[in-house]
Amino acid sequence: MKIITDSKENITKLAADKIRELVAEKPNAAIAFAAGNSFRELFSELEGADFKDVEAFSVCEYIGSDKISHELEAELYSKTGITKIHKPCEEEPEKYDEEIAACGGLDLVVLGIGLNGHIGFNEPATPYDTKTHVQQLTDSTKRMKAELFDGEMNVPNRAVTMGLKTICSAKNVILVAFGEEKAEIVHKLVYGRTETYIPAAMLQLHMNMLLYLDGEAAAKL
């Protein structure tokens, strides 16, 4: 794991440069993207990039809502020329890993981290060897997403997500985290034991993991 700390503005540019560099080397790279507040500036930095040959995979999606897919389309895909889009299916989630394998495996996964340590929607106690699967969302996660759905009661109860093994099998991983509210979980990601109670801590074992943090998120390191 390599940790890069700077201002949010500079971190966003550095992460965007790393993604562009990968696509320049391999135009048809298979890249998995998460969505959410942590990525808006990053996606803005990528606007205008030529990603027309990229195979784009959604890390996860709610069941009963296409909110993540719509966000990725509006903020990233439509602005970078991405048309080769894959997203997991509730009915046959295991086929998503077959799609990934057909592209030669994931070249990069771009992630955020939840306050409870989830990556994708792999909640605490998710087994390490999970591939793409349907996940029951915890109350903690639903509270975090309440604003997106105009109230916690409207947040879907389940999601379909790449599993920990799917994510950790990617050739490269980028994880971005901003703000003081992420400082405690970032500390656990970096220094915690690699137990499934903190799913993101499994990334300690990844050889090509880049952790991009602003000063507030890195405050406890």
Report on this model:
- The longest helix has 18 residues, at 8-25.
- It is globular, with a radius of gyration of 16 Å.
- The strands form 2 sheets. Strands 1-10-9-6-2-3-5 form a 7-stranded parallel beta sheet, sandwiched between helices. A 3-stranded antiparallel beta sheet has the order 4-8-7.
- Helix 2 links the parallel strand 2 and strand 3.
- The chain has helices at residues 8-25, 40-46, 67-80, 94-102, 139-144, 164-168, 183-191; strands at 2-6, 30-33, 55-58, 60-62, 84-86, 108-111, 133-136, 158-161, 173-177, 209-214.
- The mean pLDDT is 95.
- The chain contains 7 helices and 10 strands.
- With 221 residues, it is of the alpha/beta class.
Poorly predicted tracts of residues: none
Portion in helices:
25-40%
Computed Rg = 16 Å
Name the quaternary structure. Answer: single chain
Strand order of the largest sheet: 1-10-9-6-2-3-5
Cα distance, first to last residue?
14 Å
Task: Average the pLDDT over all residues and give the rounded result.
Answer: 95
The count of DSSP E runs of length 2 or more, i.e. the number of strands, is 10
Condensed summary:
The protein is 31% helix and 19% strand. It is built from seven helices and ten strands. The two termini are 14 Å apart.
